[in-house]
Amino acid sequence: MKKLCRFLIQITLLLLFLSASFSVSAGNSDAADNLKKLGLFRGTEKGLELERQPTKLEGIILLIRLIGKEDEALRCTDTHPFTDVPAWANAYVAYAYRNKLCNGSSNTVFGSYETLTLKQYATFILRALGYSEKRRRFYMVKVR
User: Fold this and answer.
1) For the whole model, what pTM was predicted?
2) Other beta carbons within 10 Å of 97
3) First to last CA, the chain
4) Count of CB atoms within 10 A of residue 108's CB?
5) How far apart are the C-alpha atoms of 88 and 67, rounded to whole Å?
6) Which of 4, 57, 98, 133 could be disulfide-bonded to 112 (CB atoms 3.0-4.6 Å)?
7) Tens of each residue's pLDDT in the chain, 144 residues
8) Rg (Cα) of the chain, in Å, rounded?
């Protein structure tokens, strides 16, 4: 578990750096290429699109890949209450929702196409590590 936590923290710091950058540099491109080789970045039909910040939907999918649960997520047949999730992403969001990795922007809106904030991604990571927030503070909870 220590190795997994260390790996998640290192990757997260790299991703936070990438998402905070508004310009594409050689360093960002190399880092993104390495993440693509690991299967964490897939890009779109337009490529990796490093010139823009990721969406909330992209962030939760990346988190699921980081924790090694993509295959399990893709087999998920649960549902979620969100009306703004595209059909191709339903399994990812349902998995994340069932496992308390994410909440919506409201009871019926996930915020799929909202720009992912650093705070949101940090929250995803903390939840994946077994923390739960109450009154804007995180507490360790038993991981399923």
Assistant:
1) 0.73
2) 21
3) 14
4) 11
5) 20
6) 57
7) 556 555 666 566 555 555 554 344 445 667 667 777 777 777 677 776 777 788 999 999 989 998 999 999 999 999 999 999 999 999 999 999 999 999 999 999 999 999 998 888 888 888 888 887 765 555 554 444
8) 15
